């Protein structure tokens, strides 16, 4: 149960002075607070014995007022320190999680769904913050304050009466221990259910257009209702177990109070204690009720904190399985060379790239074509270091690609993926994302190269037009061209277009390709596509099928071979540069891509 505090030791050590000051002031507050009943007891005795006069009344009043103001000031200091520490822990752990997420590659995000990561990064970290804030307060009250009260009761009133009232509280510890373990288990189950609901809600929001198009709203409402009812039951289970804590504590506290009154009356009748002593003792006992009752809250907080810590550690300790130990700074691009290169995804039962032999000289353009699932995107991912390297040789220049520092390699690449990743910001912000301190001139130039000028003129606010989350307010073709403009503004040494022209018409596509060829003389360009007209001007074109290169050459050479490339090119020419433009399809999806996958593996 206390393992969560041990695991948070790094934070307590880092902010040790803040917690030391909080604990010292809390301890002093406890000491001053328990003196108040002692003064009241003496005050009552003075009245009973007739010793009370004006001077004694003023003395007790001044003492009482001084203690109240002192404890108020001390309570403010420790309260601020503990609860400010809780917010600092949230900030620190969320920053740690964000850094971890940004370092992870595709295999990591295949292990965890987005909703699950969000649940752990919000609700679980909030539970840990409660442990560092309110949990530490309750821990000090349940231990330090209770111990101070017991000592004060024994020293100023009677040790025998103190022991008699404390003994009934001991069985309570066993009950709390047993039920605490059950809370731990039930809370973790409830958190997993919460993560699952989060996942499905995010998926539903992302797929809202498809859900509405297929009139599946009622089905999803029914599913969501079932999930939330299940989550309610699991959270209620946590509360059912936790609900026994407070009544148990109060019951044992009531027994202690009954013993204190009964045994205390006997001691008063025997002349061992005074009336003031009994009043002071009852006040001490009353002050002990909250720390004792708070034991139930402490157990719940620590149990939930332990479960949350395990969940957070699971995602922070997990990795993507990729290690990039290269030390060479890739200052510029060189020739790429694949020799007998073979690769298979961890989750795949078949080889995804099979004995690839390919050379791409610096400054040349490579076209990659092939049917869906032939391995186009998989080959591109080797350049992006998104998955573990395969077997065989993959060099850039005279060195293995893995010898280069991963960040320095990625800094040379401008990448436009199949799935257009746009942010819920303006057109300007999305394009300027590709280059630090990009000027409006830079942005407008990249817009011209991406053939987006006419679209921009039709937008009411121009560059300041908000495109909505994931570009929901613009068409598929517009998404693609904004993504292309973002890559071009970087003016990268390597430009990779992964089926990035599928949602534009043939004329726009040709304009973009021509613009790219004009401005990228001497720079490496890789174009993966289904529309063969996009690679007609490439220096070399390879045709992939089931991860193997089955044809290679220039456009004219491949036409002359009259193989797969020739057949597809003729079909597309006959259909009018098919696959047809998909500007009219929702989200720019082509019919053949509506298979729920679209990763081009």
TrEMBL record:
Biased composition (Basic and acidic residues): 587-601
Protein name as annotated: ATP-binding cassette, subfamily B
Transmembrane segments: 20-40, 60-89, 127-151, 157-176, 241-266, 278-302
Region (Disordered): 575-601
One annotated Gene Ontology cellular component of this protein: plasma membrane
Chief localization: membrane
InterPro entries (UniProt xref): AAA+_ATPase (IPR003593), ABC1_TM_dom (IPR011527), ABC1_TM_sf (IPR036640), ABC_transporter-like_ATP-bd (IPR003439), ABC_transporter-like_CS (IPR017871), P-loop_NTPase (IPR027417), Type_1_exporter (IPR039421)
Keyword line: ATP-binding, Cell membrane, Membrane, Nucleotide-binding, Transmembrane, Transmembrane helix, Transport
Annotated PROSITE patterns: ABC_TM1F, ABC_TRANSPORTER_1, ABC_TRANSPORTER_2
